[in-house]
Design brief:
CATH superfamily: Aldehyde Ferredoxin Oxidoreductase Protein, subunit A, domain 2
CATH class: Mainly Alpha
CATH architecture: Orthogonal Bundle
Order of helices and strands: HHHHHH
CATH topology: Aldehyde Ferredoxin Oxidoreductase Protein, subunit A, domain 2
Number of strands: 0
Oligomer: single chain
Number of domains: 1
Length: about 130
C-alpha cells in the first residue's frame, strides 16, 4: 500500500503499509483512497490535528499512516468515523470534503485510463 495517493514513494514504507493493511483486513485500494482523502482534507484544513486524534497527517508519513490504519480497523477515536468509508465520513464532515471525494477518486482513474490507452497504442505497429 504505497503510491501517489498517500505520498508513500519509499519502497520499504510501501511494503510495511502493505503488510499492515493485509494484517488488519483492510482492502489496500480503499485504504489508499481513504488515507489520501484524509490527507487532502487535513491539507485544506477541513480536518484538524484534534479531529485526527493528534496525528500529524503529512504525505508519506508511514508511522502516522500505520497508526491511523489501526484506529480505522479497531474503530478507535477518529477511526470509528472513517471505518465506514470515504462516502459516509465525507457526509458526516460535510462541506467541501464531499466534493473532494469525487475529485480524489476521479483524477487517478483518468490518469490510469490514459496510461492504459497509451500502452495499447504503443503496441500497434503500422507496416
Amino acid at each position: 500500500m504505497g503510491g501517489p495517493q498517500i505520498g508513500a514513494t519509499d519502497p520499504g514504507g510501501a511494503i510495511v503499509l502493505s503488510n499492515e493493511v493485509d494484517g488488519l483486513g483492510i482492502d489496500s485500494n480503499e485504504g489508499r483512497w481513504l488515507i489520501g482523502w484524509i490527507m487532502k482534507c487535513f491539507e485544506k484544513k477541513l480536518l484538524t490535528i484534534d479531529d485526527l486524534d493528534g496525528l500529524q497527517k503529512e504525505w508519506g508519513n508511514v508511522k502516522a499512516i500505520r497508526t491511523l490504519l489501526k484506529k480505522i480497523a479497531y474503530r478507535e477515536g477518529v477511526g470509528n468515523l472513517l471505518a465506514d468509508g470515504i462516502k459516509v465520513a465525507a457526509e458526516k464532515i460535510s462541506g467541501e470534503s464531499i466534493n473532494m471525494v469525487l475529485f480524489h477518486r476521479m483524477v487517478p482513474a483518468k490518469v490510469f485510463l490514459l496510461v492504459y490507452i497509451s500502452r495499447i497504442w504503443s503496441r500497434i505497429t503500422i507496416d
